[in-house]
Each structure stands twice: as structure tokens, then as C-alpha cells.
Design goal:
Layout lengths: L3 E4 L5 H10 L4 E4 L10 E4 L4 H10 L3 H10 L3 E4 L1 H6 E5 L11 E6 L10 E5 L8 E5 L4 E5 L4 E5 L5 E6 L2 E4 L10 H13 L6
The structure holds glutamine (GLN).
Glutamine (GLN) binds next to helix 4.
Amino acid sequence: MGPIGVLCLQGDFREHLAVLTKIGVPAVRIRKPQDLIGIAGLIIPGGESTVIDKLSQIYELSIPIKKLIGAGLPVFGTCAGLIMLAIDFTGGPADQENFGGLDVTVSRNAFGTQVDSFETELRFDGIDHAIHVAFIRAPIVKRAGAGVSVLATLDDGQIVAVRQGNLLGISFHPEVTGVTSVHEYFVEMCKTANFTAEK
Ligand code: GLN
């Protein structure tokens, strides 16, 4: 399998690279279109989706990433990365764009501001133990389309992890609390997909 790309434009990409190193998976930093060649999967980190949107357009990554999503590249979006993957989202500026692909509607900053950030234990379908994760100005999945599997919810039923084919989107951050199992889950997705990004 080729390396996993981590979109390194803004946000906590360093933490994602560290998780991949910890679990022994080769990783590559994605900053230019040619960095995408040969990757087996892509992680879009948390951060600020408006900024990730603007920088991915400026660095001409937006169109190639959209094409790769359409071609079946496995992509894992965390928090702002989930917003980048949703086909529909609310709570952003009118001109905010994203990559799309995942048939969900996501509400940005659904828990409030930075001071409303929190950590919690979650059950995640496909992981055999509870995971301790952080929600940081997190989005919520308000609608999941017919082809979308819900992998995790909060106690009140709000959807915080989804999968549709090769696309995985989560509202929270496993990479800041030392959890590696969601990345391991994604690496398994990449192995099964056996995709290699071409030019
Ligand atoms: N609130 C941010 C956004 O809308 C996401 C926060 C995060 O990624 N931790 O992009």
C-alpha cells in the first residue's frame, strides 16, 4: 500500500502525522498537487474549514482532491475535515466551499464556541473499546443520507461519526487524546480499497 497523505495546509496536521508514525504507517505531507501522486488515502485534519477551503484553492489542491474523491480515494475528515467532506453544511460564510462527497448535512460550531469544547468517552462501531476523544468547536451531523452508516453518536443521539464507502467523517479529535484506533480503522479502509492516486 502507498503512503497516507495528510493535508498540511492548516490545523492539527502534525498530530495526525504523529499518530501515523506511532502506528507504523508511512505518511506524506500534502501541500502541492504533485504530493497527491501515489497516496493510498488522505486525512483532512481539524482546524478551521474556512481557511482550509481558501488555502486548498490557492494551492490548487481543491480540484484534484475532488477528482480523487470521485475516483474512490479513501478520505478521513476530522472536525473541519468532516465539514470539508460534507455535501452540505450550515453555519459558514456564504462563499465557503468544500470538497464534498459525503452525503451528510453538517452544522458548524454546533456546540458553541471554544469554551464549550469538551472531552468524552465514545463507542465507535468497528472499534471494540470505548475511545476518549476531544470535541473542539465541533460540527454535528444533522442529516445522514441513505447510503451513510452512523458509526458513533453522543448519549443524546447526535451523530458524530459517519462512513459512506471510502469516506470517513468524524466530529471529534482522536489524535489529541492519544487514541490511535480510529486511524487504524481508516488504515484498514485504505488496505481494503487498495487505491493508488494517479496524476
Ligand atoms: N469550527 C471549525 C470549523 O468550522 C472546526 C473546528 C475543529 O476542526 N476543531 O471549521
